[in-house]
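Hi F.,

I've been meaning to write this up properly since the lab meeting, where we talked about keeping a consistent format for the predictions we share between groups. The idea is simple: the sequence comes first, exactly as it goes in, then the structure tokens exactly as they come out, then a line or two of notes. No screenshots and no reformatting. I'm using this chain as the first example so we have something concrete to point to.
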Amino acid sequence: MKLFLKNLSYFSIIGVILLIPTLITYITLDPFKVIHTYDSFFDAKEKGRVGVNKDYISSSTFIRNIENLSINYDSYIFGNSRSIFYQLSDWKKHIPSYSIGYHFDASSESIWAINKKIEYIDNLGLKINNTLLVLDYSTLVLDKPKKGHLFITSPILVNNRNLISFHATFFKSFITPKFLYAYIDFIISKKVKPYMSDSHLLEKTPLNYNEISNEIRYDVFEDLITNNIYYTKERLLPFYKRDFIKKHSPIAIGNPQKIILQNIADLLKKHNSKTKIIINPLYDQLYLHESDLAFLKKTFGEYVVFDFSGINIFTSDYRNYYENSHYRPHIAREIMELIYQ
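Output, unedited:
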């Protein structure tokens, strides 16, 4: 027993010794951009980048712009990555010209996190004059904080209650052999190789980013589509054949979601916010469950909720999508024209 404890202590000491330089390297390189301060989290000239947590970026950029640039935002777009194609330049045509908009999105966003963002804005004493909530089943069903380094909630939004688990999550992802190997390979080669992007370890798609509005655009995709070279055989593979039979998503809104959504509605009412709720037109053509739609209309208002799920002119054509999950900016533009008539 003494020998076992001695060996255990020996290996524990070795582990700590090896861990220290790894931790120093992680803090120095900050691959996920959650330790140091950045003027912008994205660079259009980058040839590749590590996948980052958009919730953290949205929250950090927001508070930095308020504190350092004295920007008084008063209009917000909330939603998951599908919401990013509701471009602020298009939205401003439908809201007062003096409005200052911010795109407060997050990857795989949850209704729980949207509620935290709205509470955070309210606690800061900022106005919420205009709100665009871009929702679907995947957002509505999530009534708890998400896990994983790409999805964990920013400590800013929860009074730093998850600060330790937040940074532990990122460090744990860093020392994962699969990521560490790919990251070192990328640093040496300066290239995002297929195995890196296919496993979502690193990203290579160029993007345009506005650090004032926190808006992301993929202009490179639109350029390829304009030149008729985007929809290659490889890119067409995700567009599976659909049977066009009317089907609904499972019920997303249970009692926990109802409490969260009611709180959101109360906060927006407190601010007299001009709110529009959009149910995403997704390629799967699943209609939002009737009970979910009914609750949203009852809670927010009959003429506030606009359901574009299911089979319709937007979901029928694969060319309205980049892949089978994200629809293009021109669809978001047309939807805004319809709901703000």
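Notes:
The CA atoms of residues 50 and 67 lie 27 Å apart.
The mean pLDDT is 91.

If this format works for you, I'll send the rest the same way.

G.
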